[in-house]
Amino acid sequence: MHLPPISRRRLIAVGATLPFVAACGSVPAEAKNYPKGKTEAEWRRLLTKQQFYVLREEGTERAFTSPLDKEKRKGTFVCAGCANPVYSSLHKYDSRTGWPSFYQAVDKGAVGTSTDYKIGYPRTEVHCADCGGHLGHIFADGPKPTGKRHCINGVALKFVPA
């Protein structure tokens, strides 16, 4: 495959947009006001290193490492940071992606969303509405009735059996 040469003008235009794309990463949850907000030091004391990385630094756990991916009991998945109920086992399904997946949140006020540009194109980030903790992302390839896949880091959740 032969690619056409890139013109100097186009190279400069692309280079000029990179700082803008980098600056458009999602706003850290610490910068917003949440009902159950804490300081970074408080979060570090409360969470494990992996939970802090995912919930507060918007990281991602490795696929197929969370036991919650295979959790099949009835119950509620709560935010590991503040215990806010965010997902129900009734809406959970096996997406075969290696992360717990849900087609909707437990209710409309449980989670919030923002646009994340960290990998160069927009994605819908999902976070806990009470503490702002990063839970994962929402994609438009889920099952009916919503067609959405809430792809959630298991370390960002705790399971409470019914």
Which properties best describe this structure?
6-stranded antiparallel β-sheet; 19% helix; 9 strands; single chain; Metal Binding Protein, Guanine Nucleotide Exchange Factor, Chain A; 25% strand; 3-stranded antiparallel β-sheet; 162 residues; globular; alpha+beta
Verbal overview:
The chain has 162 residues and is of the alpha+beta class. The protein has one domain: Metal Binding Protein, Guanine Nucleotide Exchange Factor, Chain A (Beta Complex). Helices cover 19% and strands 25% of the residues. The protein has three helices and nine strands. Strand 1 (75-79) and strand 2 (85-88) form a beta hairpin.
Residue share in helix: 10-25%
- Lateral arrangement of strands in the main beta sheet: 3-4-8-7-6-5
Give the name of the CATH architecture.
Beta Complex
CATH class: Mainly Beta
Number of structurally distinct domains: 1
Instruction: Briefly note the structural class of the backbone.
Output: alpha+beta
Distance separating the two termini: 57 Å
Computed CA radius of gyration, to the nearest angstrom = 18 Å
Are there runs of 5+ residues with pLDDT below 50, and where?
7-31
In CATH, the homologous superfamily goes by the name Peptide methionine sulfoxide reductase
Question: Could you write a compact summary of the structure shown?
Answer:
By secondary structure, the protein is an alpha+beta fold. It has helices spanning 8-23, 40-46, 49-55; strands at residues 75-79, 85-88, 92-93, 101-102, 111-116, 123-128, 134-139, 149-152, 157-161.
